[in-house]
Amino acid sequence: MGKKFAEYSKFDLSEINKEVLKKWDENQVFAKSMTEREGCPSFVFFEGPPSANGMPGIHHVMARSIKDIFCRYKTMKGFQVKRKAGWDTHGLPVELGVEKALGITKEDIGKTISVAEYNAACRKDVMKFTKEWEDLTRKMGYWVDMTDPYITYDNRYIETLWWLLKQLYKKGLLYKGYTIQPYSPAAGTGLSSHELNQPGCYRDVKDTTMVAQFKMKHPKPEMAEWGTPYFLAWTTTPWTLPSNTALCVGPKIDYVAVQTYNGYSGEKMTVVLAKALLYTHFNKKAEGIALEDYKPGDKLIPFKIVGEYKGPDLVGMEYEQLIPWVKPIDVAEDGSWTPSDKGFRVISGDYVTTEDGTGIVHIAPTFGADDAFVARAAGIPSLFMINKKGETRPMVDLTGKFFLIDELDEDFVKACVNVDLYKDYQASG
Is the dihedral of CA 223, 227, 229, 235 positive or negative? Predict the structure, then answer.
């Protein structure tokens, strides 16, 4: 019969935890779990490093418990499991914390404070809660070697990463491409997904939304019988409309073509939008009014459904560029570029919904991660600027202002920029 487990008269988890930790310490259980496995198959664990510039929380306990399970399992399977702790010493929270403490901004570095002084302050600040982390590690029974941690600001670590990247490059496993990177103009740096999830980063705000009319090039017959045919597309980021290169519909969404009038200009038009959102944009009370009875200024604008479609029925349809300041370009691997004629058509995307808007989403691949993904899959080009250094840039700079024409490559301006239309808006934003 196997050894019996200890029985407890009262279930005091705190006391049980202390007793177990004491036995582990007295018998050096963690150390023995490795020395007794000398010569056995190796399983090495490098902890995804926490940042010691902040206090540990319950979420760290939960994550570390999961990590610990795998290492203990491997130990039980006969492996020698070496576990190396680490400290993440990079990232925006460290920089912002130091700048706040010193009362400086990025612009002050190298002026009122030297780079060396700033780096020294960051190195000190990033490790200020080390003792609290070590205490938590012991109390929760998390087995990891904290005597010789890897530290991300250490040159040994940095050089190791560069060496690994070199090996990947030699094997042809690295490629150059474009991704959507959140950017902080105040901090002067890109942001990681972790930084975007920091407390206080997201908050509910009221913002401007817009429904834009995109004029069709080759409408279906029923769309061309009454006035000008348009796609109605909704956006929460109207500032990206000059960079539009596609419209996206949902593959399972029902759409309708509606004959009506523009409530602002009185223009006859036929618009396409999601059927489920019809009464969001049209007053149901006007449904029975004849189109011919409408007079400019009437509160009730009549409308008539003349066609119904599924999303795939609209895919491939073309439209005129909404704001024709700049033509999109195709960029080759060697950095060369040519004006593109592949844009300004309807594509499909699973993420399109009918919860808001029109069921048709404006696509600006230079600014949205979802936009970039569906556009790339459909062969839609992004709208880039080419500066005098030959670098591709979004239409706005890192402060949100449109580029000056003088900052752009001359050949690019000649081939892709409508100077007459764009010149009045340069440097605005």
Answer: negative
Question: 403 near 386, Cβ under 8 Å?
Answer: no
Name the pairing type of β-strands 337-339 and 329-331: antiparallel
Residue 403, classified by CB atoms within 10 Å of its CB into exposed (0-12), middle (13-18) or buried (19+), is buried
Q: Is the pTM of this model over 0.85?
A: no
Nearest to 22 by CA among 122, 105, 139: 139
Residue ranges of the domains in the chain?
Answer: 13-195, 210-422
* Residue whose pair of structure tokens reads 């902080």 in the numeric block: 184
Structure tokens at 96: 């912002």
Residue 215's alpha-carbon distances to 56, 218, 219, 378, in angstroms, are 55, 9, 9, 21
Closest among 179, 197, 177, 165 to 92, alpha carbons compared: 197
Of the CA atoms within 13 Å of residue 426, those in its CB half-sphere come to 17
Give the pairing type, strands 268-274 and 254-261: antiparallel
Q: How far apart are CA 98 and CA 128, in angstroms?
A: 12
CATH of 210-422, one of 3.20.20.210, 3.90.740.10, 3.40.50.2300, 3.40.190.10: 3.90.740.10
β-pair partners for 161: none
Instruction: Give, for all 429 residues of the chain, the pLDDT tens digit.
Output: 566 777 767 778 888 899 999 999 999 999 999 999 999 999 999 998 888 878 898 999 999 999 999 999 999 999 999 999 999 887 777 887 888 889 998 888 988 999 999 988 988 888 888 999 999 999 999 999 999 999 998 999 999 999 999 999 999 999 877 778 887 777 677 787 777 777 777 778 777 788 999 999 999 999 999 999 999 998 988 889 999 999 999 999 999 999 999 989 999 999 999 999 999 999 999 988 999 999 988 999 999 999 999 999 999 999 999 999 999 998 887 778 899 999 999 999 998 999 989 999 999 999 888 899 999 999 999 898 999 998 888 888 877 889 999 999 999 999 999 999 998 888 776
Query: 3-state DSSP call for residue 257?
Result: strand
Q: Which of 3.40.50.620, 3.40.50.1820, 3.40.640.10, 3.10.20.740 is the CATH number of 13-195?
A: 3.40.50.620
Strands 329-331 and 360-363, by their bridges, are unpaired
CA distance 346 to 323: 17
Residue with tokens 């404070």: 113
